[in-house]
Amino acid sequence: MNLPPVNIENIDIKLRFGNFVLNVLYVKFGYFLSSMPEHSHSQGSYELHYIPQGKGTLIAQDQSYPITPGTLFMTGPDIIHEQIPDFNDPMAEYCIFFEVLPGDSTPAINRNHIANDRLMSELLMSTPFWIGTDRENMMALFEMLASELSIQSVGFHHTVTNILEIIVIRLVRQYSLHTSSLHPVPLKTLDDSRLLTIENCFLYQYPSITLKKLADNLRLSTRQTERAVRKQYGISFSEKKAQVRMSAASRLLLSTELSIYAIAVQIGYTSQEQFSNAFKRYYGMTATQYKFKRI
Question: Pfam families this protein is in (predicted)?
């Protein structure tokens, strides 16, 4: 049975775990009727995914992972990933997006609490990617979360905060392998809506987005916007846009029969020559060579 979608943004929930805070930016639930294109999140940003039903494939850092009911995974900073549904059994997904902020310096009274919070922090921020099968019976938690967010009855904000805290704790409990994060968690200067605007522009509007358009959306100057993008991704606006365009070109070349001209137009280039020159600079080979390199 298909459940109604959930799309709640700017819910103003902050989960405190000792010396760090998870600032929840959105909670979503929906069905994949098309692929989620390749993308990555900015520094300090994490996306928690839970698949309650359906099947598909996750491609993360060029590795392929089967997705089945009960699959749980986290995609953190700079983890390039895409989700491809099985169109015979499209997957549903609960998705929680948050950023890590520094917490206050108020000491915990119980030393055991300090140690546990420190371990939570270290596991979460040193594990930019994790995938596994849920072993903590989290389905009921996600259903409760979706119900509270949909109904928004008296006390829902407090209840949702408690549910989200339990979800994060049960996720981190399941980390058995973890690697060091490549980047330190930066201090954030953007508010929640601006951070989401930047993420969504590079995810959905990359063919046509310009620095001026993004600046207008953020209500910032182009210089402030350039600094904000560099702070979030560690690269300039033009470098990030090229990265996203080339990732899309790579996927289309290897998974479709579209002509090079059609791909150029689809990802926002005004001519095949312009696209071909940019592609060769980025990958060190022509688009035609790249298309047939795995054959």
Answer: AraC_binding, HTH_18
